[in-house]
């Protein structure tokens, strides 16, 4: 076993600035690969996130016989195999760190005429999968997980899925998407009812690939048995990656930054809404539509923040950005209360406990709750934080280092490349003082 590990050291900086295009949206990139692989014809994707998570989805399709060229510089060409063109993989499909890859692929594989096994890394191997097994089994799929509901997932061949009407017990775009993907192959209508709005990229992209998917308020439905037609897809920059720089510019005095070509789909902009409620100065410039998705340049200027009660309905719309928002809260005057965020305990790490432990380690007072926390704004002192192998925890505390009295050392940062391969380079371009360091265990 190696006795060293990749870490970050982030030191205080003066005003940051510049124009920046962060990498492609992870959710849209996964879906572009999936729909292109299942489509008839050749799809051209640009702006693809070449992060490890998306590469895991692509590798799975290659292992099932799909031909693809790239990715290089965000460009990927996929020769669609058609709905029934996939072949059994010779080995287990490794989804790495990616819950999206595992859950969405399960929806596709549950409907195939061959068996599949899906595995993941240490973090993914401890994440809950019954939430997709239950609806997929209701559709007639034969899926097995470990006794505690975690991967590996063993999926047996079937050719007779049926559509279901399913009330989602949790607001989860991954579960919704797994059911809709299986529904493409099912007999009859598949209807999913959401308890709260979640990201709708699957629905939008299905329609873009010529497959009718109808949303009426909280009910999403489609008919099985159709076809997807290859498309040219342009992936916008990921608002979840841009969020770190929104918070950075909001907390480092004198900063102003322009984040270019960011996806601002209304099911993803909770971070903008929440930061604005805290007093952030965020402007959407040149809002436009690209390939059925809203896109804008986002200008963020420093402004003093104040603590708020985060509106619970904004939580699913900012679910991946809560760690970054908690850093903003640590720098705000007064108390910020986050509730209704129990789902954070089931992400790449238990993000509630990872943020609580991290903030305490750098001198911030926090009260932990089962579904959130109260953060008392104050001075970030610096210290050592464990990212718990979670990319978003690592990047959030890197941002915190920019305003800390002493440097913040962040341990176990190896998974940052799952969503943001060039994070250190881009962060330093803005004026951050962020170093990759090999730390002793
Ligand atoms: C995602 C949905 C969210 C999010 C994840 C990506 C997606 O998960 O946290 O990073 O692409 O559908 P849940 O839908 O499980 O909340």
List the helices and strands and how they pair.
Elements: E1 4-11, E2 17-20, H1 26-38, E3 42-46, H2 52-63, E4 67-72, E5 75-79, E6 93-94, H3 99-109, E7 116-119, H4 130-138, E8 142-144, E9 153-156, E10 165-167, H5 173-183, E11 189-193, H6 201-208, E12 214-216, E13 219-223, E14 232-234, H7 239-251, E15 256-263, H8 270-277, E16 281-290, E17 293-301, H9 322-331, E18 335-338, H10 351-361, E19 365-369, E20 372-376, E21 383-386, H11 391-401, E22 408-411, H12 423-429, E23 433-440
Parallel strand pairs: 2-15, 3-14, 6-7, 10-11, 21-22
Antiparallel strand pairs: 1-22, 1-23, 3-5, 4-5, 7-9, 8-9, 11-13, 12-13, 15-17, 16-17, 18-20, 19-20
Helix pairs in contact: 1-2, 1-6, 2-3, 3-5, 4-5, 7-9, 7-11, 9-10, 9-11
The structure holds shikimate-3-phosphate (S3P).
Shikimate-3-phosphate is lined by residues 27, 100, 172-174, 177, 198-199, 319-320, 343.
Primary descriptors:
441 residues; alpha+beta; UDP-n-acetylglucosamine1-carboxyvinyl-transferase, Chain; 2 domains; 4-stranded mixed β-sheet; 23 strands; 28% helix; 27% strand; globular; binds shikimate-3-phosphate
């Amino acid at each position: 076993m190696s006795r060293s590990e990749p870490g970050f050291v982030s030191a205080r900086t003066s005003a940051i600035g510049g124009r920046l295009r962060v990498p492609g949206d992870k959710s849209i990139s996964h879906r572009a690969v999936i729909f292109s692989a299942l489509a008839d014809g050749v799809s051209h994707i640009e702006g693809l996130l070449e992060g490890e998570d998306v590469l895991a989805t692509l590798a799975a399709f290659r292992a099932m016989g799909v031909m693809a060229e790239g990715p290089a510089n965000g460009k990927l060409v996929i020769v669609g195999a058609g709905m029934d063109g996939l072949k059994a993989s010779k080995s287990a499909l490794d989804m790495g760190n990616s819950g999206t890859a595992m859950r969405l692929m399960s929806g596709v594989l549950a409907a195939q005429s061959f068996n599949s096994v899906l595995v993941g890394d240490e973090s993914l191997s401890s994440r809950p999968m019954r939430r997709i097994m239950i609806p997929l089994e209701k559709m007639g799929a034969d899926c097995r997980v470990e006794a505690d509901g975690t991967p590996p997932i063993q999926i047996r061949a079937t050719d007779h899925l049926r559509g279901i009407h399913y009330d989602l017990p949790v607001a989860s775009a991954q579960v919704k998407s797994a059911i809709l993907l299986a529904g493409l192959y099912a007999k009859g209508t598949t209807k999913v009812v959401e308890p709260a709005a979640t990201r709708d990229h699957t629905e939008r992209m299905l329609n873009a690939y010529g497959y009718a998917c109808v949303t009426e308020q909280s009910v999403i439905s489609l008919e099985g048995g159709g076809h997807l037609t290859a498309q040219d897809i342009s992936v916008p920059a990921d608002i979840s990656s841009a969020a770190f720089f929104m918070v950075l510019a909001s907390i480092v005095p004198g900063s102003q930054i322009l984040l270019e070509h960011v996806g601002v789909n209304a099911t993803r902009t909770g971070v903008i809404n929440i930061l604005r409620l805290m007093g952030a100065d965020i402007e959407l410039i040149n809002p436009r539509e690209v390939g059925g998705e809203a896109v804008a340049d986002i200008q963020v200027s420093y402004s003093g923040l104040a603590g708020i009660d985060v509106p619970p309905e904004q939580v699913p719309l900012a679910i991946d950005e809560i760690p970054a928002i908690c850093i903003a809260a640590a720098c705000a005057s007064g108390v910020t209360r986050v509730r209704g965020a129990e789902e954070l305990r089931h992400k790449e790490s238990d993000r509630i406990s990872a943020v609580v432990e991290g903030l305490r380690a750098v001198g911030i007072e926090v009260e932990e709750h089962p579904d959130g926390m109260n953060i008392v704004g104050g001075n970030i002192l610096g210290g050592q934080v464990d990212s718990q192998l979670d990319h978003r925890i690592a990047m959030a505390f890197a941002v915190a280092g920019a305003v800390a009295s002493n440097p913040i050392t962040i341990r176990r940062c190896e998974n940052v490349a799952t969503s943001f391969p060039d994070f250190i380079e881009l962060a330093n371009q803005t004026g951050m003082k962020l170093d990759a360091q090999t730390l002793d265990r």
